[in-house]
Amino acid sequence: MNARHAMRLAAVAISASLVGACHFHSRAWLAAQQKGSRPEVETPAHADTQPVVRQSGEPAAPVSSRKQRKAAQAARALAAANDGRTAGMFLMENDIELSFAQIAYLNASSDDVKVYARRMLNDHTQMVDSTRALIAAQDLDPADDITARDLRDASTLERDSLRALTGRAFDSTYVALELQRHRDMLSIIDDVLLPRARNAQLRDMLASMRPIVAAHVAHAQQLRATLAKR
Predict the structure, then answer these.
(1) Rounded Cα gap, residues 149 and 205, in angstroms
(2) What pTM was estimated for this model as a whole?
(3) Are 212 and 182 contacting, i.e. CB atoms less than 8 angstroms apart?
(4) Are 157 and 120 in contact (CB under 8 A)?
(5) In the chain, what are the domains?
(6) To bridge 96 with a disulfide, which of 67, 118, 153, 155 should be the other Cys (CB 3.0-4.6 Å)?
(7) In whole numbers, what is the pLDDT of the chain averaged over residues?
(8) How do residues 60-118 score in pLDDT, each as one tens digit?
(9) Taking a C-beta distance cutoff of 8 angstroms, is the pair 210, 172 a contact?
(10) Helices (H), strands (E): how many in the chain?
């Protein structure tokens, strides 16, 4: 084989390989076109810079809503504390009246004064029972305040002075004290207890007790007039 013949064979072989490669790529391109798709192109992955927040339960309330709830809770707590002091003061007033009535029923010389003292025992016992039942039903917490403590201290001094008396002096002093104390109780109901009470049942009870106290005032006035004639 001469050199010219060898070069011709090499050229034929290179041409055949080129034609085969072109034919392969043509068939791949036709197959992709028949399927209606294009070769997939990979996209570079990027790190997610936004963290995923997973919430459980109710979503957090806005700041304004939380403040409003706290304000409402504080208002309810204040109202409950006021109702507790209101119920406590009313209980204390009735307890004081019972303590005076017990002394008068044992030591009064006048039958009319004894009748009055027995009425005080009955009425104020019922008022105490009603107040305690309401306290239990409404889950109130009776408490003292400065005004209640001042009234209690003053009543202690009055009871001590009353125990030192006898006869007509005892009767007239007791009736005078009862008249003033029930007038004061009416003022406390009107000016302190009713305006301060927030519990509806407590307000209703105080309003229903007021006529009873007013009747005690009228009875004491009548009794004082009767004693003055003797």
Answers:
(1) 23
(2) 0.67
(3) no
(4) no
(5) 78-228 (1.20.1260.10)
(6) 155
(7) 80
(8) 556 677 766 766 565 555 556 789 999 999 999 999 999 999 999 999 999 999 999 99
(9) no
(10) 7, 0
